[in-house]
Fold this protein.
Amino acid sequence: MSAQPAGRSCPLHYRYRPQQLCQAPETWGEDVLYVIGGLYGNPFALDTIEAMAAAERAAGRSVRLLFNGDFNWFNASDELFDIINRRVLRHHAMLGNVEVELANPSSGAGCGCGYPEFVDDTVVARSNRIMARLQGHAHRHAEIRDQLKTLPRWRSGIFGGLKVLVLHGDPESLAGWGLSREHLTATGVGPLAQWFRQTDADVILCSHTCLPLVWSGEVEGRRRWLVNNGSAGMANLLGDHRGLIARLSASEPLLTPLAGHRGELDGVGLLPVDFSREKWLATFDRLWPVGSAAAQSYRQRIVEGTDLACDDVILCLS
Ligand SMILES: [Fe+2]
């Protein structure tokens, strides 16, 4: 455990080596892969995602839903904690730092977010308070905690002939920020290319930083993709309350969105999750009233979106 304060530290058991991540890829034989990071306890977004998958199946396509961690966060009631986890755990899932700290809290880790310096101390403190409240609900659900403990920290699979690596944070830590827009923009493509070489992945999908980005480029003569879906259950873009998930196709161009969902994100492999903002706000406000930690940190984003324009999603690195 480092000496950093709660919410900024990165527990040792979060760490792994890039070289081990794709050593034993599974075989993912479905036609379509949804990677769903950051549901954040939103049951209405989950309704929409399951309806999107049902529409794919009705059109004759098999679908793998893979929840890429942090599916818990705002679901701070015993009832909603139970509902979110039971529904998500019917699908494929892996750990985010939120689930790690709910299932098996690390001493002094707080929310386990491993926040970097560019995130303000007040935000970090609020996230620690959200986690403490959520841990109270998790404490009363031993069976769910036991299920969460069995989830993997990463998944890799051969999908559509490509080696696909799904991570919550970055290739060195479950809560790493090395794939954040801020970090990648500062470092340039070098460290990212090194991670592609070390993992041998064609596609890396991640989530933890909660803002979407898509990068594509060539490393050692092979086309590679990096996709962060941002948040499935919370707004991602300016003036847009919808969540986002990543959709990969084994038979169409890898990252082309499904017909019928084409919109301003066409071509970047992210699909909007169009849930009812009014229903979600009513639930959120009941659980997290004005002045609460989550309301202070997130309500404005839920209502107005972020300051990220759609064109900003595609990341250009030199
Ligand atoms: Fe996270």
